[in-house]
Design a protein that fits this description.
Elements lengths: L8 E5 L25 H14 L5 E5 L7 H13 L4 E6 L7 H14 L4 E4 L2 H4 L4 H15 L4 E4 L3 H6 L9 H8 L1 H9 L7 H8 L8
Parallel strand pairs: 1-2, 2-3, 3-4, 4-5
Length: about 210
């Protein structure tokens, strides 16, 4: 009988709260959600993962938008290091990123706490609420702090497509339908979904040695 491979990666959602509420979000996150994971529950969950996880490659922290509660996010990274749990990355939609200096400082604090990488979302769905300039500001600050090989822009091919519409304001999906038509826009929306570049696949697959030294 064929057995499933042991789970070697997992994610923790600190909240369903998110300023975007993307139409394609499988978790139905959005601004209507208010609650956040409590500190006690977070610590209990991380300890349970540590005590039962036999083949850890790494975990990631997400939401919702975890940067909307930076204090909790920073605590989660610190506790992962304290408990010896390797973190692959933190996910963000960069909607909060209005200042390069603020973003760089937050990334610096997370790196000092033990974080080694970041994933920044970029898609027509995110662009409905997140101006592209914020995405690129987060990307620039993250690459400076973590290094280009430790930052995943998901999905990068949308940058130039979104730039054709607007840099400083959200782009409604209706603009894509007007420009490309229903059928072609539908293909564009899902092109490359669930893919990560070869460079970043190798980053995610290699052990996080020394990350918590």
């Amino acid at each position: 009988m064929r057995l499933l491979k042991p789970i070697d990666s997992c994610g923790i959602m600190l909240s369903y709260r998110c300023q975007c509420g993307c139409r394609h979000c499988v978790y139905a996150c959005g601004p209507r959600w208010q609650g956040w994971m409590s500190r006690d529950l977070l610590e209990a969950l991380l300890l349970a993962i540590r005590d039962t996880w036999e083949n850890p490659r790494g975990l990631h922290l997400a939401g919702g938008e975890p940067f909307l509660n930076f204090e909790l996010l920073l605590l989660a990274v610190e506790k992962c290091r304290e408990y010896g749990l390797p973190i692959e990355y933190v996910e963000t939609n960069a909607g909060w990123c209005t200042s390069y200096e603020e973003a760089r400082e937050k990334f610096r604090l997370l790196k000092e706490a033990g974080l080694t990488g970041l994933l920044i979302s970029c898609s027509p769905f995110h662009a409905e609420t997140v101006p592209l300039r914020r995405t690129l500001t987060a990307l620039q600050a993250a690459e400076e702090v973590f290094g280009p090989d430790r930052v995943i822009l998901y999905l990068p091919h949308f940058v130039e497509l979104i730039r054709r519409f607007e840099m400083d304001r959200p782009v409604p999906l209706s603009k894509w339908l007007e420009a490309y038509g229903l059928e072609e826009a539908g293909r564009l929306f899902w092109h490359g979904e669930r893919t990560v570049s070869r460079k970043h696949r190798s980053f995610l697959e290699r052990p996080q040695e020394g990350a918590f030294g």
